Amino acid sequence: MKTVTLSHGSGGKAMKDLIEQVFVAAFDNPLLAPLDDQARVPMSLLAAYGDRLAMTTDAFVVDPLEFPGGDIGTLAICGTINDLAVGGATPLYLSCAAIIEEGLPFDLLHRIAQSMAATARAAGVQVVTGDTKVVPRGACDKLFLTTAGIGVIRTGVELGVHRAQPGDAVLVNGVIGDHGAAVLAARGDLALDAPIDSDCAALHGLVDTLLTAAPGTRFMRDATRGGVATVLNEIAVAANVGIEIEEDAVPLRASVRGFCEILGLDPLYLANEGRLVAIVPDAEADGALAAMRAHPLGAGACRIGSVTQRRPRQVVMRTVLGGQRIVDMLVGDQLPRIC
Amino acid sequence: MKYVDEFRDRDKATALLREIAALTDAIAPRRPLQIMEVCGGHTHAIFRYGIEGMLPEQLELVHGPGCPVCVLPMGRIDDCIAIADAPQVILTTFGDAMRVPGSRGSLLQAKANGADIRMVYSPSDALALARANPQREVVFFGLGFETTMPATALTVLDAERDGIGNFSVFCNHITIVPTIKAILDSPDLRIDGFLGPGHVSMVIGTAPYEFIARHYHRPLVVSGFEPLDVLQSIWMVLQQIADGRAEVENQYARVVATGGNAAALRAIARVYELREFFEWRGLGSIDYSGVRFRDAYAGFDAERRFAVPGVKIADPLSCQCGEVLKGVLKPQQCKVFGTACTPETPVGALMVSSEGACAAYYRYAAKAA
Questions:
Q1: In B, residues 210-249, which contact A (CB 8 Å cutoff)?
Q2: ipTM of the complex
Q3: Where are the domains of chain B?
Q4: Per the CB < 8 Å rule, is B96 touching A261?
Q5: pLDDT tens digits for B128-144?
Q6: What is the homologous superfamily of the domain B74-174+290-305 according to CATH?
Q7: Is residue A169 domain-shared with residue A313, that is, in the same domain?
Q8: I need a surface site. Which of A55, A199, A339, B221 has the fewest CB within 10 A?
Q9: Peptide bond into A64 cis (omega under 30)
Q10: CATH class of the region B5-67+177-250
Q11: Domain that residue A212 falls in
Q12: CB-closest option in A311, A317, A335 to B96
């Protein structure tokens, strides 16, 4: 089996081969092709999309690198696209930096680069610049990817967490927790055979649909690490409002629910990679839901609660039983319970 | 979801709550009735479903000592870290023990400092790790009440049968009955009745609780873990109080047999013997409340295989976990609650795990204020 060695990071011919055969071949586009130290994008091209530039960056580490429904490559593309999209930006260009641990099989690296390229192509974005480093065994875990992205915000779109107001609706675009459960299950140390696929998806098309149907949308955030619960807490604190959600309105796949029941995990804290929380004025909520449900990535969209004046900076859940509990930020990772 | 949703039915809960309120009124207590749920699993369910807030004001739940992670004393965590730091050791543990603070940090911090500490989901995972790494010493951090005791015992018996020499257990298994007795013997006790631990009882049966009814004249109802189980059990305790009865009843009959689980009890009897005393965080030393390996299994006893400091670390003076555990104080009445003692930097046992009463109250009450 051919593997990546330190010589592939040495700056010499082996490195040139790796970059050209793996990354350039996969990402193939005219902005990348010159292989200069930077990609050069005409301003006029950007200006056609709107009036403000959005920029973001995200680092991706995941174990295992490949899991049902995606891999670190799809995560690296979708994650950065989504960070741009939830700000109302049309994502356009991405960078990709790879830190590779020596010994990584070439086949695996190739598969991941191909999957990044396919995801980017399907999303209509281009990876226009990048970097590769190879580090000794133990200095990183197999493969770390960092992508940065730029997008352009449409004229007139104004989103901000501070705009959330009492009375607004809290929406999600589908069942939650799939990604977190899929990755945990794929790690294989749970001895649980759970057929759960990651929800990893690029959401800019859905965001576009949502903003067209509900132009008054206040704010959106993709519910990645820390899950929906963490995003709701961030909104409650930043906007100094309360948020009330209904436990039985939170959409959950039966398999994810069973997975969480067995392990004592709360799905509200599981990571998602294709789910967003949207705060929408009450009057536009029904229209927003209808529009999202008509989109393939929003078929399971639901209203899970409302922004309130009561108990500012707190997220309160009305439980299936009719009781109430605070949904707080976690101190650290969710840890499975003993018994 | 079958066998789950039936036990979370809102209409049935509402009906039960009405009956609970009516019974409490009928009893007309001079001070609020206190029912202690012994088990951390019940505490978890009570907070997860918001049950406490739906109960009548004259009825209080006291969250008992049955969270095995919470009651681990600091000295034992220090010992565990000493084992993890020994050469060649892979220390394996249940996830929720990772954050429990010892006197010099938690297992999570020891891991960050270089110890090879891995989370497992059962002792058999730890044994598998020992088989796969014959050149390493694999130690399992054995924790919990009778619920987890048989699995550890059976794993040790497997290791013995297969001659696995590089596997051992740091045994911190504890037994609930002497601890309930210690609480009942305390002079400031105010508990009017108990919800008995469902999963412990699945192993030991219901007979070991008879003394509570007989000698202490307190009702005890062995309860399941779904919200309707908990509500029905509360109702059963109240019914006993209203009738002037004190009996052991079994609400969780779909899981708990009166005689317990014979195979599990055999494994426990074969592998463990009682320690003369064991230290509990918040409650101090309690006679015959912990188990260790019998001499025949000394080879699997990490305490005998590795040098452990074995130093007793006293609970911080400011910590009032003991009073909270006995229902004398509510969590927010403790001197350090929410100030020195928070989930990020727990001083006392009850702030450590999500099943601890103080951690649960902190998340609910501190912010509501």
A1: 227
A2: 0.89
A3: 5-67+177-250, 74-174+290-305, 321-368
A4: no
A5: 999 999 999 999 999 99
A6: HypD, alpha/beta domain 2 (3.40.50.11740)
A7: yes
A8: A55
A9: yes
A10: alpha beta
A11: 161-326
A12: A335
CA–CA distance, B50 with A317 (Å, rounded to integer): 9
**Mean pLDDT, residues B341-346 taken together:** 85
CB A296 within 8 A of CB A223: no
Q: Which residue has the tokens 């519910």?
A: A223
- Of B120, B227, B363, which is closest to A321 when you measure between CB atoms? B227
Closest-CA residue of B relative to A259 is: B1
Residues of chain A contacting B, Cβ within 8 Å:
189-191, 254, 257-258, 261, 264, 311, 313-314, 317-326, 328, 331-332, 335-339
Q: What is the 3-state secondary structure (H, E, C) of chain B?
A: CCCCHHHHCHHHHHHHHHHHHHHHHHHCCCCCEEEEEEEHHHHHHHHHCCCHHHCCCCEEEEEEEECCCCCCCHHHHHHHHHHHHCCCEEEEECHHHCCCCECCECHHHHHHCCCCEEECCCHHHHHHHHHHCCCCEEEEEEEECCCCHHHHHHHHHHHHHCCCCCEEEEEEEECCHHHHHHHHHCCCCCCCEEEECHHHHHHHCCHHHHHHHHHHCCCEEECCCCHHHHHHHHHHHHHHHHHCCCCEEECCCCCCCCCCCHHHHHHHHHHEEECCEEEECCCEEEECCEEEECHHHHHHEHHHHCCCCCCCCCCCCCCCHHHHHCCCCCHHHCCCECCCECCCCCCCHHHCCCCCHHHHHHHHHHHHC
Are B48 and A319 an interchain contact pair (Cβ–Cβ within 8 Å)?
A: yes
Q: Which residues of A touch B148 (CB under 8 A)?
A: 338-339
Nearest CB to A322; choose among B1, B4, B54: B54
Please answer yes or no on whether A321 and B13 come within 8 Å at the CB atom: yes
**Segment A90-141, tens digit of pLDDT:** 999 999 999 999 999 999 999 999 999 999 999 999 999 999 999 999 999 9
Sequence-separated (6 or more) residues with CB below 8 Å from residue B90:
B116, B117, B118, B129, B133, B136, B137, B138, B139
Residues of chain A with Cβ-Cβ distance to B225 below 8 Å are: none
Contact: B1, A258; criterion CB under 8 Å: yes
Query: What are the φ and ψ backbone dihedral angles of B251, each rounded to 5 degrees?
Result: -75, -25
Phi-psi region of A311 (alpha: psi -120 to 50; beta: other; left: phi over 0): left
Candidates B9, B48, B90, B361, partner chain A, best to mutate (most A CBs within 10 A) = B48
| Number of CB pairs, chain A paired with chain B, less than 8 A apart | 93
Chain B positions touching A319 (Cβ under 8 A) are: 48-50
* Helix or strand (DSSP H, E) at A144: strand A143-153
Distance from CA of B354 to the nearest CA of A (A): 9
Q: Count the domains in chain A.
A: 2
For residue B177, the model assigns a pLDDT of 93
Could you give the CA distance from residue A135 to residue B133 in angstroms, rounded to a whole number? 26
Question: What percent helix, strand, coil does chain A show, rounded to 5?
Answer: 35, 25, 40
Give which of B96, B145, B341, B344 to mutate to test A binding, by max A Cβ within 10 Å. B96
- Which residues in chain A have their CB less than 8 angstroms from residue B120's CB? 189
Of A57-71, B197-211, B269-283, B339-353, minimum mean pLDDT range = B339-353
Same domain, A125 and A179: no
- Domain end: A153, A171, A186, which one? A153
Last residue of a domain, one of A153, A179, A204: A153
